[in-house]
């Protein structure tokens, strides 16, 4: 017999600790719910998000500069809000977390009429691409804000706030340009990536966006917390609780 | 006498193995009319999977336990079941993942039970017939590049285990079989739609009888797929976008009309 | 206990295809034209047949990668590997038609891996002179069956799923249909048909360590034999050199030859690349019989791995390459054996893979000696001789599946009336099939299956000798006795014990044929390695052994191997494969010959 009894069996890699099914939907509800409540407080109870050359993403573009002073953030936040609400990733999270449809895989559901996304209002999620177009416009404004965040009254400079805003806009860009609708737009809609000269370039773009897209969920969460953190930081500067350290 | 040593060992594979421990397997026994789980003790050796345990029961305890299987290597997709509440292949689910627990093995919940672990999956074959087959403009050989077949090849990894159909809540919880083809056939349609040589159009089918709108992209199909196909991200969502091109995008429609008109 | 002798559902078809693997589906597609009514019987669900297990590729000399390749070279390789007891005409047709059959798959939606020029990619494989295997990673069989399945369901073919055929019915000499039962309900079904195509695959399940799936119990060969068809070359059973070894539950599961095709090397416990001692030219890519024997000899010499095999190592190709080209292998080892093949070598040992023998079939039409009965795929015999080349079985399915289907259609169109069915014969068969239910405290079918596998492993393994073979045959005959007393419990509804009881009867019959052939062939040739007759003998190279039924007794006779015409024989005059003389050596498998 060639088998010595002492040879051990291949060691099973320890299986990852499995969370109970309700953890994920609950976490979603807590995170999205508290962000929502914070947003309502931020949007409806503040008239400005500006601190010097910093501008909170909740208030960008700065409509007060265009003469609109009635709850200025409302004119702005509906774009990112609807972009995220119709986002393929957030849809998964809120259908699971808020609608329990399903709360987790293979969990029993309440019996009731289910129409998925075939009827109003959920069918409007099909308009996601238009929210993407608008979100790209907002991203352009945010980049503009970010550049300004490095220009202080005495010239170029770097404050902690500048870096926070830079980080935020990078995360938001990753989130926006890893969008499923964007992936479709740049090349996913093609059946052949070689059949026309331009298709080859679009293949390159599509591959890049596909790579980002596979982490779309992560970008969604990180960028949301990024916005939150940026806003909190600037709010604290405005209220005088914090002092912005100048690094350069 | 020269005897093949390799064969020799195989005849008694447990001989060189470590000592077996016992585990409790709770298997659904019954048919379309009634049934319940029944508990069995099974000796467990290294590397044993749930299907090994069921086979052991058939050979040693009760030869009437019904279960489908073919290859026992996760290639054929026959031995799908709900194992401790999770849809999976019995041949790929290791018993040592459940040490200290009772392993509950039940038939797939979405499909009607025939007997024990065997369910009636014939609905899937009826759906398959409703999808227009591959329709090339000219016969092969084709000139196609790897980048053009990559997407289709991912979908063609499907082993038709129907675990995605089983876990899909539209079919499982809402009996949506009259409205929605299910994830398996979404990737089938995606494969055909993204084939560079295909000339047929299945977008209207998707928006209509295919029931793409019933999917709310909660991704359980993608989570259970034993072939790790990105069902939602690479097939269903791109198909939703293609449907949106046609039904939800007036700007694009305007462009298309101008181009063709 | 249920009897239900009265209930039997009857159907009428022109062509009845038994088996829904690659050959069966291709035959059905070929038959279903001109309004011919076709039915396919599958033992399991549609698309689950053993064809899905094929990994490496489809061999077809289309010369996409090595332009010097051509049908002559493919023919040459096939005959050489088969040690010249294959039917030359079968091999010739095969080599000529294989490329068209692959293109046909592409027309039906198959997506093969591509070359940079956008053609079908071809990979090197054991004992193929050129890079010849069209493939899709390591799941080519799945691609093939899925393509045929989705083509087939739109061809107007009736498909009976999870139905087992137990007997061919005859009207005099001629085939008249078949009888079987629905596994789900145990209900009997009867198909009257003008022609029957056997495409039921092999019988690898007669061995314990096998890469074969549950279905490979050889039902088709057994029922054909009972209907007086001739079984040929039954002693030729292929050991695939590389099956999984550890843990015990996965022992025998196939490790594709693609691992070696993509550069994997075999080393023994001492770290030596031992194939240089057995076949220094072709190394790991030698023919399967040679590699399997080499591993066996290493183990015998005490240079085996801890669980009695050899190490296979592909880590040098890099993780990304391995995951792209061999995704299933990567996954299979990770999940079932906790081994990451991109990081570490792994153990392999020979496993039963293919049965070269089977129902003797005509090269042109796949007709058997029973009028109206055609055979294609693994159940048929003629193409592979003493050893099958990797990748040849998938193209075999396509080439001869189509030929069998079309010949059956033409045969059926030539008959004006359906052959008659004898109700007495039907009743007898129903009684036979239900007999295990009537036996109280009978033999356990699973026990008998385990015992027959034990006998085959012990007496009909890689190395065989006369005395051991005789002892094995005696044991099989004793098991056949006991099989008459198999008893099962429960109802007829999806009863695995009952299904196994019937399978065991078929398997025992084929075991007997294997032993009889192996005893008669007193030489070593291809897969048959007789330690008491270690040489390949010219006399035996001129004959095929054939088993046939004489009442209840199995008899053996020989047929001469038909000699090649001069223009084909000329290909073997030089020691160099056709195409090689004009082309420089290409690919790792180049320059190969035995």
Strand portion of chain B, in percent? 5-15%
Cα end-to-end separation of chain B? 84 Å
Largest interface: B-C, 75 and 97 residues
Secondary-structure-based class of chain B equals alpha+beta
The assigned structural class of chain A equals mainly alpha
Strand content of chain A: under 5%
* Sheet with the most strands: spatial strand order of chain A: 1-2
What does this structure look like?
The complex is a heterotrimer of chains A (248), B (261) and C (594). Chain A is built from eight helices and four strands. With 248 residues, chain A is mostly helical. In chain A, a hairpin with a 2-residue loop joins β1 (50-51) and β2. Mean pLDDT of chain A is 90; it is low at 1-10. Helix content of chain B is 36%, strand content 14%. A five-stranded mixed β-sheet of chain B has the order 2-1-5-3-4. In chain B, β6 and β7 form a beta hairpin. Chain B has 261 residues and is α+β, with helices and mostly antiparallel strands. In chain C, 34% of the residues lie in helices and 18% in strands. Chain C has helices at 22-31, 71-81, 88-107, 140-152, 219-226, 258-261, 275-278, 288-300, 319-325, 327-337, 392-413, 423-438, 445-459, 466-483, 496-520, 566-569, and strands at residues 8-18, 38-41, 58-59, 122-123, 133-134, 158-160, 163-171, 174-182, 188-198, 231-232, 237-244, 265-267, 310-313, 346-355, 358-360, 373-375, 380-381, 463-464, 529-530, 543-550, 553-560. In chain C, strands 1, 2, 6, 7, 8, 9 and 16 form a seven-stranded mixed β-sheet that branches. In chain C, strands 17-15-10-20-21 form a five-stranded mixed β-sheet. Chain C has three domains: 8-236 and 356-413, FAD/NAD(P)-binding domain (3-Layer(bba) Sandwich), CATH 3.50.50; 238-352, Flavocytochrome C3, Chain A, domain 1 (Alpha-Beta Complex), CATH 3.90.700.10; 435-549, Methane Monooxygenase Hydroxylase, Chain G, domain 1. The longest helix of chain C is centred in the last third of the chain and has 25 residues, at 496-520. The chains are: A mainly alpha (248), B alpha+beta (261), C alpha/beta (594). Chains in contact: A-B, A-C, B-C. At the A-B interface, α3 and α6 of A face α1, α6, α9 and α10 of B.
């Amino acid at each position: 017999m060639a088998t010595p009894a002492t040879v051990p069996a291949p060691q099973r890699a320890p299986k990852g600790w499995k969370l109970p099914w309700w953890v994920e939907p609950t976490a979603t509800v807590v995170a999205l719910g508290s962000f929502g409540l914070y947003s309502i407080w931020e949007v409806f109870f503040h008239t400005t998000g500006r601190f010097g050359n910093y501008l909170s993403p909740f208030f960008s573009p700065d409509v007060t500069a265009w003469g609109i002073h009635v709850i200025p953030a409302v004119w702005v936040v509906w774009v990112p809000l609807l972009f995220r609400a119709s986002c393929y990733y957030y849809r998964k999270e809120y259908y699971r977390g808020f609608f329990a449809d399903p709360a987790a895989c293979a969990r029993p559901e309440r019996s009731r009429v289910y129409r998925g996304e075939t009827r109003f209002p959920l069918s409007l999620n099909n308009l996601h691409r238009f929210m993407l177009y608008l979100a790209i416009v907002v991203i352009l404004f945010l980049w503009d804000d970010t550049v300004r965040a490095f220009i202080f009254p005495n010239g170029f400079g770097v404050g902690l706030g500048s870096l926070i805003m830079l980080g935020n806009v990078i995360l938001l860009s990753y989130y926006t340009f890893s969008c499923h609708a964007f992936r479709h737009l740049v090349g996913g809609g093609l059946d052949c990536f070689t059949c026309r000269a331009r298709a080859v370039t679009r293949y390159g773009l599509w591959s890049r966006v596909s790579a980002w897209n596979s982490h779309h969920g992560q970008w969604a969460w990180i960028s949301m917390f990024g916005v939150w953190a940026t806003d909190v930081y600037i709010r604290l500067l405005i209220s005088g609780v914090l002092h912005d350290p100048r690094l350069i | 006498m020269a005897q093949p040593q390799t064969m020799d060992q195989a005849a008694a594979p447990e001989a060189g193995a470590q000592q077996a421990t016992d585990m409790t397997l709770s298997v659904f026994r019954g048919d379309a009319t009634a049934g319940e789980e029944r508990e069995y003790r099974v000796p467990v050796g290294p590397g044993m999977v749930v299907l090994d345990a069921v086979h052991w029961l058939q050979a040693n305890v009760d030869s009437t336990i019904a279960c489908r299987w073919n290859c026992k290597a996760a290639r054929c997709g026959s031995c799908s079941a709900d194992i401790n509440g999770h849809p999976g292949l019995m041949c790929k689910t290791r018993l040592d993942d459940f040490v200290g627990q009772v392993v509950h093995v039940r038939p797939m919940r979405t499909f009607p039970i025939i007997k024990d672990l065997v369910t009636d999956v014939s609905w899937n074959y009826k759906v398959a017939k409703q999808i227009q087959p591959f329709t090339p403009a000219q016969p092969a050989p084709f000139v196609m590049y790897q980048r053009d077949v990559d997407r289709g090849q991912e979908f063609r990894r499907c082993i038709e285990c129907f675990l995605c159909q089983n876990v899909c809540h539209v079919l499982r919880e809402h009996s949506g079989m009259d409205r929605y083809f299910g994830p398996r056939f979404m990737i089938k349609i995606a494969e055909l739609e993204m084939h560079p040589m295909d000339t047929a159009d299945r977008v209207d089918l998707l928006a209509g009888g295919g029931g793409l709108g019933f999917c709310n992209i909660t991704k359980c199909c993608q989570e259970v797929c034993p072939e790790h196909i990105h069902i939602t991200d690479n097939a269903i969502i791109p198909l939703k976008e293609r449907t949106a091109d046609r039904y939800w995008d007036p700007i694009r429609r305007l462009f298309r009309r101008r181009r063709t008109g | 206990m249920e009897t239900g002798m009265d209930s039997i559902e009857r159907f009428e078809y022109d062509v009845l295809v038994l088996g829904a693997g690659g050959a069966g589906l291709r035959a059905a597609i070929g038959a279903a034209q001109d309004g011919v009514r076709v039915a396919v019987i599958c033992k399991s669900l549609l698309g689950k047949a053993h064809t899905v297990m094929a990994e490496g590729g489809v061999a077809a000399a289309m010369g996409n990668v090595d332009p010097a390749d051509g049908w002559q070279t493919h023919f040459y390789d096939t005959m050489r590997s088969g040690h010249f007891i294959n039917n030359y005409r079968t091999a010739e047709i095969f080599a000529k038609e294989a490329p068209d059959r692959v293109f046909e798959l592409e027309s039906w939606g198959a997506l093969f891996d591509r070359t940079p020029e956008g053609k079908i990619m071809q990979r090197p494989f054991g004992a193929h002179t050129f890079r010849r295997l069209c493939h899709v990673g390591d799941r080519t069989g799945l691609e093939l069956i899925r393509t045929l399945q989705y083509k087939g369901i739109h061809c107007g073919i009736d498909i009976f799923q999870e139905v087992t055929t137990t007997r061919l019915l005859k009207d005099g000499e001629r085939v008249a249909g078949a009888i079987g039962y629905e596994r789900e309900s145990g209900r009997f079904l009867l198909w009257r048909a003008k022609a029957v195509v056997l495409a039921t695959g092999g019988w690898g399940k007669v061995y314990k360590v096998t890469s074969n799936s549950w279905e490979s119990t050889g039902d088709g060969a057994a029922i054909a034999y009972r209907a007086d068809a001739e079984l040929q070359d039954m002693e030729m059973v292929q050991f695939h050199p590389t099956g999984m070894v550890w843990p015990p539950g996965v022992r025998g599961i196939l490790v594709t030859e693609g691992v070696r095709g993509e550069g994997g090397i075999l080393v023994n416990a001492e770290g030596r690349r031992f194939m240089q001692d057995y076949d220094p030219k072709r190394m790991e890519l030698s023919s399967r019989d040679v590699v399997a024997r080499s591993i066996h000899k290493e183990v015998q010499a005490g240079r085996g791995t801890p669980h009695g095999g050899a190490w296979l190592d592909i880590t040098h190709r890099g993780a990304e390459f391995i995951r792209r080209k061999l995704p299933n292998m990567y996954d299979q080892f990770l999940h079932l054996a906790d081994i990451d093949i991109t990081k570490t070598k792994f153990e392999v040992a020979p496993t039963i893979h293919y049965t070269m023998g089977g129902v003797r079939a005509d090269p042109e039409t796949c007709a058997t000696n029973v009028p109206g009965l055609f055979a294609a795929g693994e159940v048929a015999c003629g193409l592979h001789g003493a050893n099958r080349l990797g990748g040849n079985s998938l193209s075999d399915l396509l080439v001869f599946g189509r030929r069998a289907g079309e010949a059956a259609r033409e045969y059926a169109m030539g008959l004006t009336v359906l052959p008659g069915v004898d109700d007495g014969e039907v009743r007898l068969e129903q009684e036979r099939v239900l007999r295990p239910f009537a036996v109280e405290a009978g033999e356990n079918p699973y026990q008998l299956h385990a015992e027959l596998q034990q006998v085959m492993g012990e007496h009909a393994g890689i190395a065989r000798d006369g005395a051991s073979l005789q002892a094995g045959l005696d044991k099989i005959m004793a098991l056949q006795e006991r099989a008459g007393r198999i008893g099962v419990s429960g109802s007829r509804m999806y009863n695995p014990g009952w299904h196994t009881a019937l399978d065991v009867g078929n398997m025992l019959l084929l075991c007997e044929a294997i032993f009889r052939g192996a005893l008669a062939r007193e030489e070593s040739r291809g897969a048959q390695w007789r330690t008491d007759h270690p040489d390949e003998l010219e006399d035996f190279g001129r004959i095929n052994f054939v088993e046939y039924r004489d009442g209840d007794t199995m008899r053996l006779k020989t047929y001469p191997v038909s000699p090649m015409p001069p223009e084909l024989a000329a290909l073997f005059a030089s020691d160099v494969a056709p195409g090689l003389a004009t082309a420089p050596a290409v690919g790792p498998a180049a320059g190969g010959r035995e």
